[in-house]
Each structure stands twice: as C-alpha cells, then as structure tokens.
Amino acid sequence: MAVVGASRRPGAIGRQVVANLIESGFEGPVYPVNARTAVVLSMPTYASVLDIPGPVDLAVLCVPATEVVAVARECGEKGVGGLVVITAGFKEIGGEGADREDELLAIARQYGMRIVGPNCMGVINTEEGVRLDASFAATRTPPGAVAMVSQSGALGEAILADATTAGLGVSMFASVGNRADVTAADLLEYWEHVDSVRVILLYVESLGNPAKFVEVARRVSRHKPILAVKSGRSAAGAAAAGSHTGSVAGADVAADTLFRQCGVLRVTSFRQMFALAAALLHQPVPRGGRIAVVTNAGGPGILATDALDAYGLEIVKLAPKTRTRLQRALPPEASLHNPVDLIASADADRYRKALRAVIRDPNVDALLVLFVSPIMIDAVQVAEAIVEAAVREAADDPAAAGKPLLVCLMGRQRGREALELLRDNGVPVFRYPEDAARTMRSLVARSRMLAREAVPLPKLRVRRNDAQRVLDAAPAGWLDGPSVETVLCAYGIPLARTRRVSDPGEAVAAAHALGYPVVLKAEAPKLVHKTELRAVVTGLRNGDEVYDAAEDLCRRLRKRFKGLTLLLQERAPGHRELLLGMTRDPRYGPLFAVGLGGTQVEVMRDVAFRIAPLDGADPAEMLGSLKGAPLLGAWRGDPPADVELAAEMLLRMQQLVADAPRIQEIEINPFILAAPGERSLAVDARIHLSEDAVEPQGGRS
Ligand code: ADP
Ligand code: MG
Fold first, then answer.
1. What is the pTM of this model?
2. Are residues 434 and 513 in the same domain?
C-alpha cells in the first residue's frame, strides 16, 4: 500500500489515511510517499512511488489536484494495481477539472489500473487477512456482512458511523466519488461473489449508466438483497411537461420504478435502510404478505394494523385451530382475533404460549409482536419468551420456520436490556409500529420479487414501414392528427374512426357517413386540452345537432386557434377510460404509464409506471396495481373490461418506441376499454417527435 501525499500535519487527510491503514491492522507493508517530508507517523517516506523497493498493489492519492495526473503516471510505471484518488477538483468543478479527470482515466487505461474516485473518501475492507482501511473515516467499523457504496464522501462517513450504531458490521465499504472508473455496478458484480457480503447498501445520487446497473442489479439482487437510498431528481418530469403522463409522473418516478424493476429495495432514509438490512440479515423472507400481530395493548395494535394495511399487507384471519389454542392459553378478556391482544397483564408465559400458537398458524406468513412495558411485567423475561418461542423452537418446526418476526418495544422499563437480548438473537427491534410495518412491507416486497418470473413477450404483428414512412417525413414537434392515426394503426392500436372537415355543412355529411351517435371535436396545433374549451361534444344524435354544435365551435374558437379543424369521430362503446403513455426519460429510457384515464387523470393520479424493457407480464401487473383496478372488472352491471387488450396495447407501444427512437412521447388519453370482443378504441392520441433519435445518455453508473 502506498499513500501518496502522506502527511505529518495533524488533521490532514494524508495523515489520517496512513493512521487508518496502521490502526486497521493491515497485514502488508505501508509506504508513505512525500518528497517534502522525511517521516510520517514514525515511518520513513519515499520521494516517489518509483523509489519504493517492493511491489505496490494499491496507491491512495491525496496530493493536490494539479499533481494527481503526474503521480498516476508514476504509479503506472511502477506497476501499481489500482488507485484510490481521494483528491477533489475534477469533473465536479467542471472546466479544467473535467479535463484532468479525462487525463487521469486515460493513464489508468493505458497502464491497466482501476480507479476508485476521484473526489472520494476511500475504501475499507474488514475481512480477516486483509483488514484494510484506506479511507480518512474517523470511525472504526466492526467487521460484518454488509457491503456499502456511497456516492457522497461526506455522507459516507456518517453512514459508516450510523451503521455501527445500528449494530451492523461492515465487510466492505467504498466511496466512489466521481466514478471516473469504478461504479456501483462494478462493485455489485464484485460483491456478488464475495461470500462474507450478504446485504448490499447503496447511497446514490444518480445512475450514469442505468442499463448496466439494471443488468447487474437484476442478477445480483436475486441472491443478495440490495437496498438503496437514492437522492436527487430525475429529469422525467421536466422533459414531459405539456402532457398528462409527465405531470402525473412526478420528478423521481423513473428512478423509483427502475430500482423496483431490478429488485433493489428503495428506502427513503438511512434509519430505514439499517433496520431493513438487519431484518434481511437475520430473518427469513416470508412466503407472502399475510401478517399476524400479537400485542399487549389495544392502541398500538391498531396503529400497527393500520400501518400494515396502508402498506398493502394483509391482517390475516387466524385459523380456527389457532383460536382454540389461544382460547385455552388466554384470559377471557383477551382478543383471539388478529391483532391478538394479550392485554396488559400478559407476562412472559402468556407471550410464549400465544406466539407458539400464532407462528404455527398456516395462514400466517410473518409476525409483528408488540410489547408496551407495563410496570408489573418484566420486559427482559418477555424478550426471552419471544426468542424461545419464535426463534429457537420455531427454527426446527416446519410449521413455524421461514416466518420472519419483528418486535416493537414501547416503554422504558428495562427496555434497553430487552432490546439487546432480542437483537443479539437476531430479532429486529423497533420503537414505533409504523417503522416495523414499513420494514415488513419491504420483506414482503422482496419475497414477491424473488417469486416473480419473467414472461417472454408475445409476437406482435406490426406494419413497421407504414409508420416509418410517416415518421421520417415529419418535422420535430407534435405530430399532426392524421399521421398519429397512421402510426398507431400500423402498430395495431385501434383508433375510433375519424373524419376531419372544415365547416358545419361538411360536418353533417361526415357524421352521416360515420353513423350516429357521433362525437365532434375541434382540433388545432395549439389546442391541447380540448375539454377545458368545451371543444368536445359527445353523443350527437342527428344532423341538426351536429350542425349546431359545429357552428358553435367555429364561432367560439376559429379566431383564437389558427388551423382549426372539425373532427368527427365514432362514439366508442366502452365505459372505462385508460391513460396509456410513454415518455422517454433522458437517463433511463422509455417510461411507460398506464392509469385510470380520461379528463380527471391529474386529480385521481392513479397511474402505474414502468421502464423499458417491459416483459410479457409487466403490463398486466401495472394494471393490477392501480387503486382503481376493481373498476376494470365486472362493475355495476357492466361486464369486465378487456384488460388483456389494454396490456397488449402497452407492448405495442413499446415495440413502436423501440422501432422509432425519435418518438419522445406518446399519450393516448383516453383509450376507451370495452368488454372483450367489443370495440375498444383510442379516441385521443398525441405523439411528440424530437429532432434526432434520442438514446439514453451514456456514461457510468
Ligand atoms: P381532451 O383530452 O383534449 O379534453 P378528448 O378527446 O380526450 O379531449 O375527450 C375528452 C373526453 O370526451 C374523453 O375523456 C371521453 O370521455 C369523451 N370522448 C371523447 N371522444 C370520444 C369518443 N369518440 N367516444 C366516446 N367518448 C369520447
Ligand atoms: Mg384526452
């Protein structure tokens, strides 16, 4: 190990790194390098890495930014394996900093060295036989099963300290800084094969190369849980301004869905991240989302069930046999239903008996146990009972095994001791039911993720050339109405039959040709939301009604909107309106949206998102995840809507945007869904084209 820029000045990074290397018990030689200082921490220094007698695997650079490139070249000549560049003043400052980073990277490539950083806090590896702390972190991290990547150096330090406080040991840590070379995705690939790493934690601000990240994370997350705190906002919202899809998407939805799709559990705080990491390390992943709550106080029991319910988990009905067993063990005032209320007098023995019964219930996938310490009950004994009944005995009983147990400990009476006893036995302890419920939700999410299997895409017949011809000829901007229709039809997305005319007389003739009832709309390049201008008239029954309505539209709108066209449309027979949308996120690629549509979509905001590539099952899952999904089934005398067709429409859109990279945005709102076999139709669709093909920005993850 060489530390270039080693320093004797107290407080200097170059001194802290040398000190950390020594204190961490690194087994190999450490060579301080500094031409201006003879001795650092009692060790003689070398003027240059080239003067070091033995081989150097890793050099930590803490020299000024202007010297980094020259030092890196020397390292290359010396045959150093890799560099950790702590020095700041690179891409993050732009201008000359960016040039410097490019130069640094070129040297590394030339000599075959890998780089962590620049602008980072360093790397730590606590593994026996390595014990390397090549960072300037002030905390000593105990060894453990967690590996962490932090994009922020400053936060990295705080995360390490908090992880230690939360009782998590760290196997490896890397602060990747500007990610000139080594990225989060690289580390995931590495940790995939490191046995001591069992849970991976990420703090990321942006993903430079989402495609690589997705590919790696999707694979790794299947055998090692990956948790991420992601800050920073995606540009999706801004890019999509002017459409419903964009305005309901919110700023960060692309990153959110991207993580979910590759099995990364996204959390919103470090507290949550550590709690979940501990749960994943010590508890099994449940088979499903059916939860039992056991409590000794009614109020917290209700808080817990409310929170679980809000996270989409099921407060399961206990099996009759369980209730009989509980009845025998509990006083008559206790509640035998879920949440099982053991009431305030519950002592260790009552907890033990109740837990034995509940954990063996075949309907129960996971348990949340609450204990509010009353004066007369000993918390430590209760904790012991929990461990005995729900951990030790349960491990060997197939009816009880594989069911995670989380505990919520409220109240202070010997709480500290009880908490430690539980934690030492691998039981995650929370202070508030809400936090426990959230962790439970993530455990269940992981279980669902592991159970999911990708479904291949069906073969879709499209007329690619018909669409291409129209798109190639079209300028950037919103595609005109007839072209939108050609393109969508070519991809098998059915549109309501439409005629365009310019005056009320022609409108009547067109309406006759289409048949009644008919819908009349005004269309113009600048006219975006037609309903707001009363420019959509549905259910016109005859020529007179068409004529009057058309005349009214012309009178009100002709002056305000250049190029006003009257549009007559067959009336779609269905009742359920969907929004089908796609907006190309500049970083993450096509983002698909499906929601309960129509003119109220912004108010309802019931929209599900997913990033390309969608597999054969994604669209149906998106539809099923809507709050209003039941409205698509049989509803108030209506037969179920053709949900399968809606799902297929999303796959057809995916095909279209894959074939046509200039398409920046598609919005079909509404797609009016009818019963299977009936005419489901798009009645309002827009397509936005960019100047050139839009490929997601390359770069690093
Ligand atoms: P905009 O979104 O610009 O306000 P739309 O063309 O989407 O205008 O029409 C608004 C609403 O009118 C739709 O959500 C739908 O309820 C109804 N509508 C429009 N066209 C038709 C049609 N062809 N058949 C049945 N209903 C329609
Ligand atoms: Mg519309």
1. 0.83
2. no
Report the amino acid identity of residue 123: V
Separation CA 586–CA 206 (nearest Å):
12
Would you say residue 630 lies in a domain? Answer: no
Residue 139 included in any domain:
no
Contact partners, residue 6, CB within 8 Å, separation at least 6: 14, 15, 17, 18, 32, 33, 34, 37, 40, 45, 62
Whether 297 and 443 share a structural domain: yes
Q: Which residue's alpha carbon is at the smallest distance from atom 8 of ligand 1? A: 530
Q: What is the span of the domain harbouring residue 525? A: 497-571
| 298 shares its domain with 363 | yes
CATH at 304: 3.40.50.261
Q: Could you read off the pLDDT of 235-271 as tens digits, one per residue?
A: 443 343 345 555 555 557 778 888 988 999 999 888 8
Task: Compute the distance from residue 249 Cα to the ligand 1 centre, in Å.
Answer: 21
* Domain assignment present for 501: yes
Nearest-CA residue for ligand 1 atom 17 is 538
Task: Please write the tens of the pLDDT for every residue from 569-586.
Answer: 999 999 999 999 999 988
**End position of a domain, from candidates 518, 553, 571:** 571
Which of 395, 428, 451 corresponds to the end of one domain?
Answer: 451
**Spatial contact of 24 and 133, defined as CB atoms under 8 Å apart:** yes
CA of 570 to the centre of ligand 1 (A): 11
Which residues of the chain fall short of a pLDDT of 50?
A: 234-242, 698-701
Give the total number of structural domains in the chain: 2
Task: From the CA of 570, give the closest atom in ligand 1.
Answer: 23
Q: Give the mutation target among 497, 516, 533, 538 for probing the ligand 1 site: most ligand atoms within 8 A of CB.
A: 538
Residues 6+ apart with CB under 8 A from 209: 183, 185, 698, 699, 700, 701
Note whether 337 and 421 are same-domain residues: yes
Identity at 390, one-letter amino acid code: A
Ligand closest to 683 (CA) is: 1
